[in-house]
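Data availability (excerpt). The following record was deposited with the supplementary files.
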Amino acid sequence: MNADTQTLPDAVTEPAPVLPAAALWDFDGTLVDSEPLWMKAQFELIPQWGGEWSDAHAHALVGNSLLTSGRYICDVVGRDDLTPEFVVDQLVQKVVVSLRTGEIDWRPGARELLAELAAAGIPSALVSASYRVLLEAVLERLPEGTFATVVAGDEVVHGKPHPEPYLVACERLGVRPEDTVVLEDSVPGCASGTAAGAVVLGVRNMVELPPAPRRVLLDTLAGVGLDELAAHVGRARASDPGAPA
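Predicted structure:
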């Protein structure tokens, strides 16, 4: 080999973009910035029950099923006469009122991406730990048919981080989980989507999200259209070459 012969680095090939068969959306913190409403309700109610609440406690509940959060609050309050079901019912009532009477704080880029998906014929599902009565308060503000199906937290046996909510959505839509993209903002939600086998777009909001195979982490959905979504899905799939195609 000549002394002046150079070895050029291999060209970096960008993974091919892939449009998902369906988009599976989390609600709290991903579609609507409702986490502050839940926290406001917690700070109003828990002192009435004799407990002391903090931002650390509130952030520990982000993305959990409501009954898991209810059990956590009961442990903090330390009252045997309170049940997780009662705690959840009181919280839901307050948040539903806030959603029905106040302005909806949509997360940046979420409604725009929803509209692009619908125009392209790609179905969306709403998959939430929140209960149906709460979701209906927001769904009535969206164009009819925005979501092809809705899986609420009180309609599954196992909530996030279990994969059941996203598997139920895929079954209803008639798609393979590995062909879908999950949009989430919480650790339990991302874990649920990953366990289901979907590509996960983790959109940072109130908590930091860990990296994982078949996962792309974003700071915002603002400006994310179909082309960029497809590029993210392609990169996520390429990050786990051993996964099903």
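Summary of structural features: The radius of gyration is 20 Å.
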